[in-house]
Amino acid sequence: MAQKKAHEVDSWLARPAPEAVIVLIYGPDRGLVSERAAAFAAKTGLPLDDPFSVVKLDAGEVERDSGRLVDEARTVPMFSPRRLIWVRNAGAQKSLADDVRALTAEPPRDAVILIEAQDLKKGAPLRTVVEGAFCGMALPCYGDEARDLETIIDDELRAAGLTMALDARNALRRSLGGDRLATRGELQKLTLYAMGKGEISLDDVKAMTGDVSALSLDDAVDAALGGNIAEFDAAFTKQCQNGSQAAQLLAAALRHLQNLHLMRGELEGGNRNAAAIIATARPPVFFSRKRAVERALTSWSSAALDRALARLQATTLQTRRRPELAVALARQAMLGIAVEGARLAAGRR
């Protein structure tokens, strides 16, 4: 069978089998799926920013245009020895499974097929086709275990040139896991916050990854994402008067946008609606916030969320460098998001 167990995936990705020209990476940990897909893509040796060498498709496109994947795989490359056909957001699409089945019967000579998929149960058509093919490889991705978390923490600390106190590491571990993308996001947010300090302390961890999901902070974040500028400004001002730090609000916003980004990926996959995704979200969405989160999920595209996350990350670094301006910087960043939220909300009406 052309498949690996969860603990064998990283070693296979380090040295992919040359005969595996159809690679399926799937699982409930969307962040880990994305990270491993990027690692495999890099191993092909193709320039990933070259549209002639790398064709990126959404599974929804393949489903709407039956035979599209086969046509792309059979196209003779003009400027490179082979092409990478990278399909994202795969799930239960019938046309995609049919196209992959056709390609396993006659493997492409000039192309590699990489498919990122959600969690596929045993017996799912796409998974069954790839697992049964000599030219295929199915790689499962599940939540990080304790050993994996330690490795990821070490990687991010090394990249940032930082160390971490033992009590800070112990506290941090309790707030991580479940999704690789969210874990990396939390760690990068923390290292950005602690840039220039040398060592991350327990206070740093508490400030950036502690219990920042209190409803009072969420009110300000929800108002900004919903485009309610006056409501956001009132909530933000109230939090500042109550003693909340700008770092807490930025951390709450970053955490919520990262979770929203994950849910948006599921929504764009087309298999579930916004309400169903929110109902099974982890961590759970508090019942009083579900309507606001659903509106944000349907209004904000992945690209718009990327822009908002980049804005918040840049602001977090600025507040670290200029703590005396932290409140003003945080307000300005969140107001920018509120303006974008208003524009997106208007586009839905």
H/E element sequence: HEHEHHEHEHEHEHHEHHHHHHHH
Roughly how much helix do the residues carry, as a percent range? 55-70%
Q: Helix/strand/pairing class, anyone?
A: alpha/beta
Q: Give the percentage of residues in beta strands.
A: 5-15%
Mean pLDDT: 86
Coarse shape: globular
Number of domains: 2
What would the keywords be for this entry?
2 domains; alpha/beta; 349 residues; 58% helix; Rossmann fold; two-stranded parallel ribbon; 10% strand
Word description of this protein:
With 349 residues, the chain is an alpha/beta fold. The chain has 2 domains: 6-140, P-loop containing nucleotide triphosphate hydrolases (Rossmann fold, 3-Layer(aba) Sandwich), CATH 3.40.50; 147-348, no CATH class. The protein is built from 17 helices and 7 strands. The strands form 2 sheets. It has a 5-stranded parallel sheet with strand order 2-3-4-1-5, with helices on both faces. α5 (94-105) links the parallel β3 (83-90) and β4 (111-117).
Blueprint (SSEs and pairs):
Layout: H1 9-14, E1 22-26, H2 30-43, E2 54-58, H3 59-64, H4 68-74, E3 83-90, H5 94-105, E4 111-117, H6 125-131, E5 136-140, H7 146-160, E6 163-164, H8 166-173, H9 180-193, E7 199-200, H10 202-209, H11 215-225, H12 229-241, H13 246-269, H14 274-279, H15 290-299, H16 302-321, H17 326-348
What's the gist of this structure?
The protein is of the alpha/beta class and 349 residues long. Helix content is 58%, strand content 10%.
